[in-house]
Write a structure and sequence with these properties.
- By secondary structure, the protein is mainly α.
- The protein folds into 3 domains: about 40 residues, no CATH class; about 250 residues, Up-down Bundle (Rhomboid-like fold), CATH 1.20.1540; about 130 residues, no CATH class.
- Helix content is about 60%, strand content about 0%.
- It contains 17 helices and no strands.
- Helix 6 crosses helix 7 and helix 16 packs antiparallel against helix 17.
- The longest helix is centred in the C-terminal third of the chain and has 37 residues.
């Protein structure tokens, strides 16, 4: 953080990119500031002291919707990084078939608040935290809100227009922009590119009146950011919706060409028109998410329903295999503790090793049960008849193993009732020895 103007300074930078002040504290006397430096500081302080409340509101809204989506996905570690397609669609991701066949127009608006996973959210929200305050402080909150909604929607429209039905392979440049598959598209990056476009044109449009520090930060200073992101989009065109990025960038630049900004020293003369546009933009978002709630449980059409059904069937089959192996392992350990019958312990361990992966918590429960199985087959117990109730294990060790198993079983049953039901079924764990 710059001590002179309050702007954010990157690690290792020797001076502030906005006001030019040194960020290192040395004992040597500093050179007197020039008139340009004083003007830069005056401009920076006047602009950076303005509020940016709607940037924070957008951050909170995006994180809130992300938490709702994670809850709908079962709140597992696996779904934290990539939400299932049905969840993305339920919360308003853009899919052309739903726009064309069912006229779900709100999917032009809601995708800018929907993210496919935690990493996607963090990258976009960090970018908003860096870029958003500058735009909101320069133009005011009303214009900032309009910029965000308009450029975000423009990005979704561009994504919609670049989905093509083509059996031919596309060339390198066409693959950068066009998509042959109608997959779910979501994220705030279109609106973020819109803000970048605003700052790019802002720096060029007002270059004659901006202090030197702001000329370096905005305008042509945004070119490296734009070019690097376009290069990343070209290299990862299979995962990144470049059309949405370009749609947001171009629309943001177009808005900045025709819209003025609040100069330092000017009073906040917010016209009624911008107040109306701000309220209308917020209203469009509110109505769009109201439509999401109305259609939240609608069945998916055509190929989307087939794909979701196949995914659900696969998850249910994996869950059934997992649950059967876990219950068989519990029966084996109960027989070992109550009847001193260790014949099935090795078979239970092998069955657990072969179960499919569901999520991290399921794997942890499986590994802990394997540890209990290995404890139950320790050689300090003398073999006894299959139905003999008296165990030859030391009483203290026997009680400790029973307590560990009962504690594990409570956690496993809790997982079944919360996360397990999202895999397509609910199977109760085998009763513990103390509850038979």
């Amino acid at each position: 953080m710059c001590r002179s103007c309050g702007a954010i300074v990157g690690g290792g930078q020797g001076q502030c990119a906005v006001c030019g002040a040194s960020t290192t504290s040395t004992g040597s006397p500093q050179r007197p500031r020039t008139a340009v430096d004083r003007e830069t500081m005056r401009f920076a302080r006047a602009v950076l002291n303005r509020p940016y409340k709607f940037t924070i509101i957008l951050l909170i809204a995006n994180f809130f919707i992300f938490l709702l989506m994670w809850q709908s996905s079962g709140m597992t570690t696996q779904t934290l990084w990539l939400f299932p397609a049905p969840v993305l669609l339920a919360y308003g991701a853009k899919v052309n078939s739903l726009l064309n066949e069912q006229h779900q127009w709100w999917r032009f608006v809601t995708p800018m608040f929907v993210h496919v996973g935690l990493l996607h959210l963090l990258i976009n929200m960090y970018s908003l935290w860096i870029i958003g305050p500058y735009v909101e402080k320069l133009y005011g909150s009303a214009k900032f809100v309009v910029f965000w909604i308009v450029t975000g929607t423009a990005g979704v429209v561009a994504s919609y227009l670049t989905v093509v039905n083509s059996d031919r392979s596309l060339g390198p440049l066409a693959r950068f922009l066009f998509k042959t598959q109608d997959s779910a598209s979501a994220g705030a990056s279109g609106a973020l590119f819109g803000l970048v476009g605003v700052l790019f044109v802002f720096g060029i449009k007002f270059r004659h009146e901006l202090p030197e520090g702001f000329k370096r930060a905005f305008g042509t200073g945004m070119l490296p950011v734009i070019l690097i992101n376009l290069f990343i989009g070209y290299m990862a065109h299979g995962f990144i919706d470049n059309a949405a990025h370009l749609g947001g960038l171009i629309s943001g630049a177009a808005l900045a060409i025709v819209v003025g900004y609040r100069r330092p020293g000017e009073r906040a003369s917010l016209t009624i028109l911008w107040q109306v546009l701000q309220i209308a933009s917020i209203g469009v978002v509110a109505v769009s998410f109201f439509k999401v709630v109305q259609h939240f449980k609608d069945p998916l059409p055509g190929s989307l329903a087939t794909e979701a059904t196949q995914l659900s069937n696969d998850r249910s089959a994996d869950f059934l295999t997992y649950a059967e192996a876990m219950n068989a392992a519990q029966e084996a350990i109960i027989s070992a503790m109550q009847d001193n019958d260790t014949n099935n312990l090795n078979r239970a361990v092998k069955a657990l090793d072969s179960v499919p992966h569901l999520d991290q918590e399921a794997d942890e429960l499986k590994e802990r049960l394997k540890v209990l199985l290995l404890k139950a087959k320790r050689p300090n117990a003398v073999a006894a008849p299959s139905r003999q109730r008296a165990s030859n294990k030391p009483p203290q060790e026997q009680d400790e193993l029973t307590k560990e198993f009962v504690s594990w079983r409570k956690e496993y049953n809790q997982w079944l009732k919360t996360v397990g039901k999202n895999y397509g079924g609910l199977i109760e764990a085998t009763p513990a020895p103390s509850e038979k």
